[in-house]
Amino acid sequence: MREVISIHIGQAGVQIGNSCWELYCLEHGILPDGEILENEEKTNSMSTFFSESSQGKYVPRSIFVDLEPTVVDEIRTGVYKKLFHPEQMLTGKEDAANNYARGHYTVGKEIIDVTIDRIRRITDNCESLQGFFIFHSFGGGTGSGFTSLLMEKLSENYGKKSKLEFSIYPAPHISTSVVEPYNSILTTHTHLGQSVAGQSTIF
C-alpha cells in the first residue's frame, strides 16, 4: 500500500478539505458514515486515502487543524460527522487574527505538539507512507503562520517524504485583510526553504 496523509489547515484548508473528502467518498463508493456501498467492490486504491477500522468502516487519513473551532465545528456537526475520527479534528481556543506571528510563534505553538502526535498516530498505521497533501491559504494567520511551523516539524520528523501543498494565494480584489500580502511573503519565504530541504511542491 502507498498511503498519503491529507492535512487541512485554517479556514480555507478545512473548507477545501470538507469538499475534497465528499468527492473522495463519491469516487470510492463510501457513505457519509464510512460504510461502503453494498454493490461497491473494495479496491487497493482505497487504502491510499482511507484506513479500514476494525468495524469495517473507512476513515480518512486526514487531520483538520484550526486555531479556533468555528469552521471545524461545521464538519463535526455536518453530514460527514461520522466519517472522521474525532481525534483527527483539532482546534484551539483563539484564532490567529490574520497574523502570521500568532500562527507561528504564539497561539500556534500551543497546538503544534498535539498535531504532530496525531499525525504520528496515522503514520504508524501506514505500510508505505508516500507523503503529505497540505491544504491551506497563504493569507490567513493560521494558514500562513501555523502551516510554516508545521512544515518545519514535518521536515524534522519525516525527512525526505514528499509534501504537496494546495495553497490559496490572496488577490487584491477579494482580500479580507490588509495584512494578507505580508503573511504571504513570510510564508512563501519559509516554504521555499522547505522546497529545497524536504521536497515540498506548491500548487
UniProtKB/TrEMBL annotation:
GO terms of molecular function: GTP binding; hydrolase activity; structural constituent of cytoskeleton
Keywords for the protein's UniProt record, in alphabetical order: GTP-binding, Hydrolase, Microtubule, Nucleotide-binding
Catalytic activity as recorded in UniProt: GTP + H2O = GDP + phosphate + H(+)
Record's keyword annotation contains Membrane: no
Tubulin/FtsZ GTPase domain span: 46-202
Top-rank lineage group of the source organism: Eukaryota
InterPro entries for the chain: Alpha_tubulin (IPR002452), Tubulin (IPR000217), Tubulin/FtsZ_GTPase_sf (IPR036525), Tubulin_CS (IPR017975), Tubulin_FtsZ_GTPase (IPR003008)
Any one GO cellular component localisation term in the record: microtubule
Gene Ontology BP, a term: microtubule-based process
Subunit (UniProt): Dimer of alpha and beta chains. A typical microtubule is a hollow water-filled tube with an outer diameter of 25 nm and an inner diameter of 15 nM. Alpha-beta heterodimers associate head-to-tail to form protofilaments running lengthwise along the microtubule wall with the beta-tubulin subunit facing the microtubule plus end conferring a structural polarity. Microtubules usually have 13 protofilaments but different protofilament numbers can be found in some organisms and specialized cells.
Protein purpose: Tubulin is the major constituent of microtubules, a cylinder consisting of laterally associated linear protofilaments composed of alpha- and beta-tubulin heterodimers. Microtubules grow by the addition of GTP-tubulin dimers to the microtubule end, where a stabilizing cap forms. Below the cap, tubulin dimers are in GDP-bound state, owing to GTPase activity of alpha-tubulin.
Family: Belongs to the tubulin family.
Record-given protein name: Tubulin alpha chain
Organism: Caenorhabditis angaria
